[in-house]
Amino acid sequence: MLDGGDATAGFWAEEYRLNLLISEYPKPYVAFMDGLVLGGGVGISAHGSVRIVTERTRMGMPETTIGFVPDVGGTLLLSRSPGESGTHAALTGAHLSGADALFLGLADHFVPSASLPALAEALKNEPADAAVARFAGEAPNSVLAAQQEWIDACYSSDDAEEILRRLRAAGGEAADVADTIETKSPTAVKVALVSLRRAAGLSLEEALEQEYRVGLRFLAGPDFREGIRAQVVDKDRDPHWQPASLAEVSRDDVESHFAPLGDRELKLSKERDNV
């Protein structure tokens, strides 16, 4: 039985409709991804047609830190990233540089932050592609791109415990990443992994519908509330996850997050047909 939370469910439904609208908007949608672009910020930027990052960009989907999973179409976006780099970004919730966002396919152009005011003026009178081309420059090197070899080797498994074993066996920075993942909600880590694998074959509409289904399940469970408490309310950074380890999260536990919601389903394609 799902919890209450009708206001949250309603907000997510509207948010996801907006994400889909942005992806299909007939006019150029230019996103300045300057500074922090986290969670919902990814949804209102990375689905745009012209996505700009700067040297100040700090981007990410940090949901596993708060007992949740990437949403706003993030599972689809990250499932399309090179190799297993999107899986790494989703499970760790790491903050990404502008160069990393470009590598992951979450952005298109690098523009120095000092040039953004002039670019904004140019966009008033010039076609978006032409204006951006005048101000875009070469991005710094992506850290994720340099880590691609061990990321692909470690994250190619569909089993979260096996991924951690491989990370620890790889040693060095990979072992540090394993430590990071172990601080996240075990349920969120396992569900996020399956969400990305399933999203790979979906449209954005279908991915958003799946994320809505999964999101309402987390809303009814203990980890989302506990993660918000630990990170946002009390800020003790000491969440007590239930279950507390990956080994305690069963396959049935994971699959239950994807179960149909009945009349609570978010039916984006049906809504479009009825417009």
In short:
The chain is mostly helical and 275 residues long. It has helices at 6-24, 40-43, 74-79, 85-92, 98-104, 116-122, 128-135, 143-146, 148-155, 160-170, 172-182, 186-199, 204-220, 222-233, 251-256, 268-273; strands at 30-33, 36-38, 50-53, 58-60, 109-110.
Structure description:
By secondary structure, the chain is mostly helical. It has one domain: Alpha-Beta Complex (2-enoyl-CoA Hydratase, Chain A, domain 1), CATH 3.90.226.10. 54% of the residues lie in helices and 6% in strands. The longest helix has 19 residues, at 6-24. The chain starts with 5 loop residues before the first helix and ends with a helix. The relative contact order is 0.15. The mean pLDDT is 95.
List strands and helices in order, with pairings:
Blueprint: H1 6-24, E1 30-33, E2 36-38, H2 40-43, E3 50-53, E4 58-60, H3 74-79, H4 85-92, H5 98-104, E5 109-110, H6 116-122, H7 128-135, H8 143-146, H9 148-155, H10 160-170, H11 172-182, H12 186-199, H13 204-220, H14 222-233, H15 251-256, H16 268-273
Parallel strand pairs: 1-3, 2-4, 3-5
Helix pairs in contact: 1-13, 4-12, 9-10, 10-11, 12-13
Distance between the termini: 31 Å
**Can you identify the CATH superfamily?**
2-enoyl-CoA Hydratase, Chain A, domain 1
CATH architectural group: Alpha-Beta Complex
Q: What is the tally of helical segments?
A: 16
Give the helix proportion (percent range). Answer: 40-55%
User: How are the strands of the largest sheet arranged?
Assistant: 1-3-5
Domain tally:
1
State which percent range the strand residues make up.
5-15%
The radius of gyration is 19 Å
Named CATH topology: 2-enoyl-CoA Hydratase, Chain A, domain 1
Order of helices and strands: HEEHEEHHHEHHHHHHHHHHH
